[in-house]
Amino acid sequence: MASILRSPQALQLTLALIKPDAVAHPLILEAIHQQILSNKFLIVRMRELLWRKEDCQKFYQEHEDSVISASREIAAFFPDFSEKQWYEEEEPQLRCGPVRYSPEGGVHCAAGTGGPGPA
Which residues form the signal peptide (predicted)? Predict the structure, then answer.
């Protein structure tokens, strides 16, 4: 399914974390996923991971509401993700469309491309 986005403004990156109690229930997880899609968010990367309690505590201890914190958090979950490269290469394609959603990968990508960059 392809859609066309027309936005004069650059897209922003948002990190969505789904807690283990929601992931443990497939129906709840699917409902959350559908809610993200129905609110017109584009999923550009997706990853599942299991953290130890200590990892979670460190992550939340360092959490602040700022762009710097968001960049640090994205890097923690997607170490190979380059924000600079994403804003230069993928963001303009996603913003201007057309965009398609790949249910297999669970991410959005510019129509006519093989998919997003490295996960």
Answer: none
Residue 2 forms beta bridges with which residues? Answer: 100
Helix (H) and strand (E) counts for the chain? 6, 3
Query: Please, what sign has the CA dihedral across residues 62, 70, 56, 34?
Result: positive
**Tokens found for residue 72:** 């640090």
Nearest to 43 by CA among 118, 116, 113: 116
Among 74, 9, 7, residue whose Cα is nearest residue 44:
74
Q: Report the amino acid identity of residue 70.
A: A
pLDDT tens readout for residues 36-62: 999 889 999 988 888 888 887 777 666
Phi/psi of residue 46, nearest 5 degrees: -145, 140
Cis check: omega of the bond before 116, within 30 degrees of 0: no
d(CA 107, CA 85): 18
Please report, to the nearest 10 degrees, the dihedral formed by the alpha carbons of residues 103, 41, 3, 27 taken in order.
Answer: 40
Per this entry, what is the length of the chain?
119
Q: Scanning the structure block, which residue is given the tokens 């996923």?
A: 33
